[in-house]
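Exercise 7b. Backbone tokens:
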């Protein structure tokens, strides 16, 4: 962040916070956030030192990603529902400040890096305690239900979230040049075994290890709300439990702890236990979703439209995901 933008940001923050004594003492980019940019801000305000995070758009924004104003509204709704999220402070759509929309939130402590979280035996009070805490957080998210005027930008829920997801990923496959028979087979299995729809709730849509900040005491923040939507609550449960987000760990709940503890935490907060068969259906969907996205990213590189080592390497995980799709379909069919 150059000096001109830093000065413009400081002026805007003084007005937003109604604090003429606000001073930015430090600003540095944070790691993580492949789609959005995150900046750590050190500020002094009324004589106190505070640590904030500024979240703004990257140069390339996915069309399915929520805007920063929408993500800010989602954080406010989640905070009001008791979800552990960073407190949202200010939101700005004035492009004259930084050249892109942004919002500011308090900075949460802890770590989120998946490969580090799954190796720890002590984070969050231990594996079982942390898995339970994740279940409680998911249930609090799912307590938010339509209609919700503050989240009107989410639109009307799909009549059947599962069928809508099948149609979405099938259409994405159809736009690709490379045949993907295993993924098609997995989608057909999901189509034939789809559970009946349930009343929609707010789903995070990327609730997984790597997007959840934790410390030794427990969860400190659920991050990255840019894909949130109305949907089936089992979407988030299956996504967290999917093998592709366990980072090599044998523990089924996000590589962190036992699935039973995760379910127990969810039941504690929601008042009823998850439907395991429905979660497994969405867990298979999770592998298909990630495989379709990874293949699409590889295609963007191979076509020459967007040369990128990261996109090219992402394509290499597709065979591993296809193997897991085959394994899961075989297990479901047994």
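Sequence design result:
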């Amino acid at each position: 962040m150059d000096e001109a933008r830093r000065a413009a940001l400081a002026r805007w923050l003084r007005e937003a916070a109604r604090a003429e004594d606000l001073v930015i003492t430090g600003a540095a980019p944070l790691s993580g956030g492949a789609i959005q940019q995150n900046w750590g801000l050190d500020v002094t305000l009324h004589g106190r030192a505070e640590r904030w995070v500024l979240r703004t758009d990257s140069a390339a924004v996915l069309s399915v990603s929520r805007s920063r104003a929408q993500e800010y509204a989602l954080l406010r709704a989640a905070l009001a529902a008791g979800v552990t999220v960073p407190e949202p402070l200010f939101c700005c759509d004035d492009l004259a400040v930084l050249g892109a929309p942004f919002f500011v939130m308090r900075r949460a402590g802890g770590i989120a890096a998946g490969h580090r979280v799954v190796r720890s035996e002590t984070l969050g009070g231990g594996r079982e305690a942390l898995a339970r805490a994740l279940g409680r957080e998911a249930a609090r998210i799912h307590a938010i239900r339509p209609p919700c005027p503050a989240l009107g930008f989410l639109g009307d829920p799909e009549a059947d979230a599962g069928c809508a997801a099948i149609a979405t990923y099938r259409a994405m496959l159809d736009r690709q040049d490379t045949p993907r028979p295993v993924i098609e087979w997995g989608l057909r299995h999901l189509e034939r075994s789809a559970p009946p729809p349930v009343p929609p709730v707010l789903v995070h849509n990327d609730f997984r290890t790597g997007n959840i900040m934790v410390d030794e005491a427990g969860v400190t923040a659920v991050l990255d709300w840019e894909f949130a939507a109305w949907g089936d609550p089992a979407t988030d449960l299956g996504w967290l439990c999917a093998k592709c987000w366990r980072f090599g760990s044998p523990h089924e709940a996000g590589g962190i702890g036992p699935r039973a503890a995760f379910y127990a935490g969810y039941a504690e907060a929601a008042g009823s236990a998850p439907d395991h068969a429905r979660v497994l259906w969405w867990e298979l969907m999770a592998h298909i979703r990630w495989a379709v996205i990874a293949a699409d990213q590889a295609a963007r590189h191979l076509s020459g439209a967007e040369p990128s080592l990261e996109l090219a390497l992402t394509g290499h995980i597709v065979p591993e995901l296809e193997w897991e799709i085959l394994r899961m379909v075989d297990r479901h069919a047994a």
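Instructor comment: The mean pLDDT is 93. The longest helix spans residues 276-302.
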